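Entry 14: structure prediction run for DUF4259 domain-containing protein. Input pasted below.
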Amino acid sequence: MAVYRGEGDVGTFGTGPFSSDGALDFLDELTERPPQQRAEALRQMLGYVLANRDLLWREYFPDEVVAAAALVAATLPGGEHLQHRLTQVSDEPDPVILPEPVPDLATSALEALHFVAGPGGPWHQGWTTEADQAEAQQTINDLTAILQAAHS
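Run finished. Output tokens:
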């Protein structure tokens, strides 16, 4: 875990997609929904982010967007390690957040990910060590590769 400093926030965050309090809260909210409603909730969240970019830091945070993109990636080929990571961070006995693949969300997940974690994006600001910066960038590179493969 690392200390992340950004836009008035100081907290403990990890460089993985499910390694922050915000990401875990987002997962908890999603698991409260019936499984068949979760993909639609993700669709709405990603659409909201893309339509309301100016509300970043007020209505949503970069770690939530990264977690949402990772949930989509977890259902796609190459995202199996993300499913494993979900089992590690979940309090639920059956942590599979999405009951089936959602390749139709890959495009919006990729666009939202680029918005918060593209070069110089808010996800990358505030990491206090070079090692954390590199790990955070690797997280984004991995998610981008999975989402791009489904997008093409």
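Notes: Residues 9 and 52 are 20 Å apart (CA to CA). Will compare against the previous run tomorrow.
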